[in-house]
Structures are given as structure tokens and as C-alpha cells.
Design goal:
mainly alpha; 3 helices
Length: 101
């Protein structure tokens, strides 16, 4: 049970790192530091977008338009920090205490 809990937390942490990499790469592409016509950066950006965009698209539809500043990654990170981590920990704590009886 502990191994499953650890794997789930590691997957969530991997998603957080992927989200941060996506944001950094998006900023580098937006400011013109990296070129989207470069096949290597395009493939990395496209792969990260396919992982991150399904989570951020519903949040973007809820948030108001702020004119070029995307707050969806920050909202996703806050939701993970304050809802997902505590929920996973509570679920596994309840499962661990249930199985001891």
C-alpha cells in the first residue's frame, strides 16, 4: 500500500515538473529566445503541451481573460498543492487505518 502511495505521489510530482518545463519553454518561445521552427524544440513543446493542455484547458475556460498573462498553470499548481496532495494522503491514511482492524 505504501508503494502505491509513493508511486502516485511521484506521478503527481512528475506532472508538476512537466508543467513547469512547459511554462518555461513557452516563455522562451514567446520571447523569441528559442525558435519554434527548430524541430527539436517544437517536438518537446508539442509533447509537453499534449500532457499539460488537457488539464489546463478547463481552467482557462473558467478564468477571465487577462490579456496575455496565463494564470492557468498557477491555478493548477495551487490545486495540486492544496487539494490533490492532501486528498491522496488522506485516502491512503484512511485505507491504512482501515486495514489494521
Amino acid at each position: 500500500m505504501v508503494a502505491l502511495h509513493t508511486i502516485i505521489l511521484m506521478l503527481i510530482q512528475a506532472f508538476v515538473w512537466i508543467l513547469l518545463a512547459y511554462c518555461i519553454l513557452s516563455m522562451l518561445l514567446g520571447f523569441g529566445i528559442l525558435d519554434i521552427r527548430n524541430r527539436f524544440f517544437y517536438s518537446i513543446f508539442n509533447t509537453l503541451a499534449k500532457i499539460v493542455e488537457p488539464v489546463m484547458a478547463p481552467i482557462r475556460s473558467i478564468l477571465p481573460n487577462t490579456g496575455g498573462v496565463d494564470f492557468a498553470p498557477m491555478v493548477v499548481l495551487l490545486l495540486i498543492q492544496f487539494l490533490v496532495y492532501p486528498a491522496v494522503n488522506r485516502i491512503f491514511f484512511m485505507l491504512a487505518t482501515q486495514s489494521s482492524f
